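Retro notes, item 3 of 5
We never archived the inputs for the iron/sulfur cluster complex last cycle. Fixing that now. Sequence and ligand:
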Amino acid sequence: MVTQQDSPYNWGMVVDIDRCTGCQACVLACQVENNVPLNTENLYKQQRIYSWIRIERYWEGDFPDVKARFIPILCQQCGNAPCEPVCPVYATYHNNEGMNVQIYNRCVGTRYCANGCPYHVRFFNYWEPVWPESLRNQLNPDVTVRSRGVMEKCSFCVHRIRRAERKARGEDRLVMDGEIQSACSQACPTDALVFGNLNDLTSRVSKMSKDDRHYKLLDDKLGTDPNVVYLARVEEKVEEGAAAAHG
Ligand code: SF4
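Structure as it came back at the time:
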């Protein structure tokens, strides 16, 4: 059995909800970087849109003090992933760098993994993806273009990770903190997404994951042990007297 201790790397992400403005730059960056098929009107109508990372919107409070909140949801790269044991052909498995890996050419399309995932972050290619002629040259050559019948999901931009690891190995060192950014974390204008090595106790992601505000999605209920850590929103406390003075 391989464990995270076998590797110097345990890739993870911190998502600071207090910084997320819901702008969706991360969604677009992920789509472009990873050759995620375009969401057509037809896909929307059939509720089969693709998005490896999505921004969930929810509301807090009652009218007129209702506030819109946003939370980015991506594959949580669970250490105890419900999607892994149900795959009959081992197309999804856990590697020794803390990532839940999807092997496209093993997938036979049973979709058991998507049913097992409580975060709904797996997407199935029901149709052969088609890009408009004008967009074909923008496909990323480092990322497989998936065909019909294949399950897919966020890979933490594994092609960027592998490139940095190869470079570091050639220079006889470990990947440094900040050397790798996933497409979403690179695009986020508010620095709400921080990617890095959780095994490196001095890394930014490792320090942030121990912040007082940290929590993991559904982990207390399901024991999924995600490698994505959320930081709770900080609520501004308004003194009653001050609120009245501001009208
Ligand atoms: S890019 Fe950053 S601020 Fe915008 S939706 Fe994504 S996480 Fe939130």
